Fold this protein.
Amino acid sequence: MPRIIATDRDGSVKEFDADPGMTLMEALRDTAGLDIAAICGGSCSCATCHVYIPAHWAEHLPAQQADEVELIEFLPAYRDTSRLSCQIEITDALAGLEVELAPED
């Protein structure tokens, strides 16, 4: 199981193991117990699972699809490293992934 290192909105850091095959959103919410709203349940239609991924991890992640880009590019808290955690599937290649929860908009 890949170990994920998540920084919560209050700056606290939580390390946890995530099951391959689940989405990062599910792992953050269900496994780590972090406050990810995920209102749409992972269907890429709400942006309430917005996170920041360090740039050096970008090459290990699936490319963003147009619908993900459209949802996050105009968020007030948008950064170049913004992603929707529901669009990132956990794989063994993501062991050590660092993620930061974006502010709630």
In short: Strands lie at 3-7, 13-17, 50-52, 82-84, 98-101. The chain has one domain: 3-101. The longest strand covers residues 3-7.
